[in-house]
Amino acid sequence: MRNFYFRIQVITLISLLGILFIFYPEGFCSEFLQDDQVQEQEIKKAKIYEDIYPLISESDLYCSFFVWKGAKPEIEIIGAEREYEKTLLNDGDIFYVNKGKDDGLEAGQVFLIVEIGSNIADFGPIAFKRGRAVVVDLEDHHASAKVEKSCGSVMVGYFLIPFEEKEGQTGKDLGYDVSPSSIKEGVKGQVIYLQKDFNQIGKGYWALIDIGEQDGIQVGQQLVIYRIVKEGTPVQVFGNIIVIDTQESTSTVKVLSCKDVIRLGDLVHVRPSE
């Protein structure tokens, strides 16, 4: 008797499903089709974006460093609110500068905060990007500004320069699988400064190299790093870097990948295909 009732239930269920399929075929299949389509799209998306990721970030653009040329900037931070109790300024803090309305400053104007450091060999002083500030109040020859976004801490004695909006970049790390024999002709340079004066750096860190715009170097360009281990042997290509800022004769770069640490004096070369 139990088997009989079970068969009746199965027959009834099949009949109901058949009726649904006859009268609503699209509704019956749409959910399954959508799932298949979503899965297919995800597979395609994964293939398209394989190894694609941000190469140049906002931090690279506005928190790194570069070689400063010429006289020091004219706009200087000369004081700050609550300066009597804190010397390091962070996001939201107000500071004062030595220029004002009569010097061309305007309310809402955005500036890049820079610290001018020591000289690098014969290239000039290094300028550290310390964040972004906006002018909030004006007097004839003085102004108040607010730290919008800091990279570390801001201090009295730092300078303001015009802020330039820049775009990041996504792409693929081209790596350092380059034939040593191809490192012959083309633009060459070397590493002249490492982030925070480290003795060596690895992936994700910044450095300065001694080739720049006058050598045809451009932001977003990827270069390989190599060294000569022993005279008379092939060069050792061991790293890939990307240019995040350019000056006339120098460039700021970030290490994308490497199989050995990067040190001062290591050599750089424009990729053979470029």
Describe the structure in your own words.
There is one protein chain. The protein starts with a helix and ends with a strand. The protein is α+β, with helices and mostly antiparallel strands and 274 residues long. A hairpin with a 3-residue loop joins strand 5 (110-120) and strand 6 (124-138). It has three helices and 17 strands. The strands form four sheets. Strands 3-4-7-6-5-8 form a six-stranded antiparallel barrel. Helix content is 19%, strand content 38%.
In short:
Helix content is 19%, strand content 38%. The protein has 274 residues and is an alpha+beta fold.
Looking at this protein, list some descriptive labels.
274 residues; alpha+beta; six-stranded antiparallel barrel; 3 helices
Q: Give the overall shape, derived from the CA principal axes.
A: elongated
Number of alpha- plus pi-helical segments: 3
Gap between N and C termini: 82 Å
Helix content: 10-25%
Q: How many beta-strand segments?
A: 17
Layout: helices, strands, pairs:
Blueprint: H1 2-23, H2 25-48, E1 52-56, H3 58-62, E2 65-67, E3 75-80, E4 94-97, E5 110-120, E6 124-138, E7 143-150, E8 159-162, E9 169-172, E10 188-194, E11 200-201, E12 206-209, E13 222-227, E14 236-246, E15 251-258, E16 262-263, E17 267-270
Antiparallel strand pairs: 1-9, 2-6, 3-4, 3-8, 4-7, 5-6, 5-8, 6-7, 10-12, 10-17, 11-16, 12-15, 13-14, 13-17, 14-15
Helix pairs in contact: 1-2
